[in-house]
Amino acid sequence: MRYSLAVFDMDGTILDTLDDLTNTLNMSLERVGMPVRTKDEVRSFVGNGVGKLLERAVPVGTTAEEMDALAAVFRENYAAHCADMTRPYDGIPEAIAELRRAGMKTAVVSNKVDFAVQALAEDYFPHLFDMAVGEREGVRRKPAPDPVFAVADALGVPLAETVYIGDSDVDADTAANAGVDFIGVEWGFRPRDLLVAHGATVTVSHPRDLVSVILGEGVKRG
Questions:
Q1: Which domains can be identified in the chain, with CATH numbers?
Q2: N or C end of the chain: smaller count of CB under 10 Å?
Q3: Per-residue model confidence as pLDDT tens digits over 165-206
Q4: pTM exceeds cut of 0.85
């Protein structure tokens, strides 16, 4: 088996979180007197952490003080509503369980705030991940490779035996920056064409195909 560690993105890869992100964002925007956003707009805003999500959502000219107020409200609301409508993508829990039965280690690396990553990983995937890492103070967010390096080091797995799985350009760039293989999933928040434009040479349309690629020949480059 080529890989010993599979590292997954969270939003758009293992969990469909878009409804909760949209509802929480709009609840927060309304509370501070700003216009709400559509679900498709929010889909295009996510991927680079809470700070970037909020920056992309607010009107031009929003002050730093207004941003701080919105961020505080959003974190409060998301802590209370991060799992109202969120659900795993069909076949994902089974796929992760199959990888673990094959002897692989599994982890999550996400730009979502860390408290939500920990809660959602435990609630929806109990005992299916060896480690979960979200956005934390002092650690560069994806597409920086730092969180992938930290997970591989903590779990004692060489980068050459690590594969990263995600749904976005940010994920593809993260894998490239970390020097690990990448598998793009087509059921998430970004179109396949964008993944390919960011260097993805393998994409899958169903979790069962993901298992076949990881446990089979691995990522074929070029």
A1: 5-16+87-215 (3.40.50.1000), 18-81 (1.10.150.240)
A2: C
A3: 999 999 999 999 999 999 999 999 999 999 999 999 999 999
A4: yes
